[in-house]
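Protocol step 4 of 5: obtain the predicted structure for the target chain.
Materials: sequence only (see below). No template structures provided, no constraints applied. The aim of this step is simply to have a reference model before the mutagenesis design in step 5. Sequence pasted as it appears in the construct record:
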Amino acid sequence: MDVVQKVLEISGIESLNPVQELALKSGLLSDRNMVVAAPTASGKTVIAEIAALDAIKRGKKVVYIVPLRALASEKYEDFREKYGQLGVKVVMSIGDLDSSDPWLGRYDIIIATSEKLDSLMRHGIPWLDSIGLVIADEIHLLDSPNRGPTLEVVLTRLRQTCNPRILALSATISNYKDLAEWLDAIPVKSDYRPVQLYMGVAHGGKINFMPRKTMEVDSENPILDMVRKTIEMKKQILIFISTRKSAESLAEKIGKSVNLDSRELHQLNGLSEKILHSLEHPTKQCERLADCIRTGVAFHHAGLANRQRSLIEKAFRDGVLKVITATPTLAAGINLPAFRVLIRDLKRFSSFRGMDYIPVLEIHQMAGRAGRPKYDSSGEAILITKTEAEAKYAWERYVNGEAEMIYSKLGVEPVLRTHVLSLIASGVTPSRKSLLDFFFRTFYAHQYRELRHIETLLERVVDMLENFKFIIASRDNAPANNPFRPATASADYDLAPTKIGRRVSELYIDPYTADYIIRNVRKAEGLKTNAFGLLQLISNTVEMKPLLSIRRNDFPLVNELLIEHEKSLLQPVPNAWDIEYDDFLRSMKTAQMFHSWCNEYGENRMLEDFGVTPGELRARLDNADWLLYAAQELGLLLGYMDILKMVRKTRVRLQYGVKEELLPLIRLKGIGRARARVLYDIGLKGLAELRKVPEDSLARVVGHAVAKSVKEQLGEKDDQKIIGDHDNE
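Step 4 output (structure tokens):
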């Protein structure tokens, strides 16, 4: 029991709470797998820490799987601070998806997203067998079409290859026993929450709560009234809104009614300046956010730059910011509690269903942010409704209703093809029978038990991968009419990756995308293409979706782009009546967005011309760089050398947002796009000119520190080729 006492001591906790006590009594320190289903903020992380410290004590590694990078960073900082003093080595791995990162083997706790762990296993990590415990945080996200399938395959693969102990942490879900049965785990369910949550519905000037209590509120402006009351209590409030635009406008509206003292305003002015200058050149969004923050209110969504989000989160935790209006992504991410949570929008738009009510589980995740442990004895989550009928519906479904069951999202072809290739390329499933056996062990098979349906799906996927020449299916001993007949010894045959198939798996791109790139890059041999042609190629891929939308006034622009770049396009222009034509048009506009960035458009103009915020721009640029890198690696492996130089140049231009003429300058440390443009425009266009100019003269343009650094770099790199240095090409 010493590990329990040590965790409590380091965490500053006197004793275990009921859910932690239940987990311990149920076998937390045994060798059995366990599923813990409990509300947000119920202390599940402490349960994980106890199990982790116990595994490390036994000489085993711990892998902590999280769904989001932001959550990984939060866990890393917390664990390193708490357990580093015990000599526990903690590391975070969330970056490069084309690396085995062998150095991770030196650490005790490895925190990674499911995608990163999947990538590591594709590269054959040598420390796999030393994993003794896998903690799967937020495992209810198996229900997510985006993240669920990878998490499901990762857990299935871990159980088959090294069979570590699995501790799954989940929000309260209806079918937690189903999940436990799949993992052969002990189910632990608790409704305990250390901070009492009052969940209520606001309508007609009144809020009814469960547990039973009521509150009067301004019927005309319930949100502004609740904000005012919260700030008067010296507490904080989170408001969840369905869209970014609405979150921003509501933050501005609230800011006009907030009253703060001079000390608070001074702190907010400093924060506002940091937010404003988070980017090289502030955008209108930066100015809008900075103005809001001066009033004690911030908006928070994925369109903000990472530094801006981090500053807002820290300021809220420190009590500097009083109000955050946020999109629901914040609820599934980092731990950012408040005394009061308002959920303004109970519906959101879906491309499949139109406007539809948000699932109960997601509402409960948002509501779970109410009540701050160590600060509050209770918290309030309030649903804002517009009509009496909606108020009744919200009460029955969200307050009294049970969270939905979670379902596997693995059984669709686009998801399967990347994981099937990975399993074959990694040698996990070297035969048809082993491939079937693997998928028969998944949560999908456990839930649906439609084994024949799985076989049919796998048949199509294997045929597709074979047609792409990514695998070899040796069917010599299999029945000719249907190689995917129910498993028998005679129907079995070998599955092996080709060299290119193995590389596609390592590159972590959809096999369909890889085949599309290969086919079009092959056509580029001997043809003249340019950066726009490459950018359009990668824009029309599965990974780049959703593409920028085409509006009525965009058609003249797209037609101009077609006329200007038709000869440099690698993808054939579809017929206007073809089903893929709409996606092609969107890919042209998306490519133009990237091309504009490469032609030195600033973040503000990108926002004005394309409606792309700095945060979204960075995410899209990272995605584009990865696809260009994949094209570069595939072209290199297949010997398509003509296009490689253009791919490399385009990657550098995309990274720095510069025209080709600045490439020699931009690769120097300390010279960003702004300094490179200034140097070029005054005649210092390349390395030769920079070598000739005296350091003092250079310092007047870029500053003394940068000038000294540039001169040192030029002295060290006289004989080295810098990509884009035309004198050396």
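Step 4 remarks: The two ends are 67 Å apart (CA to CA). The domain at 2-189 is CATH 3.40.50.300 (Rossmann fold).
Proceed to step 5.
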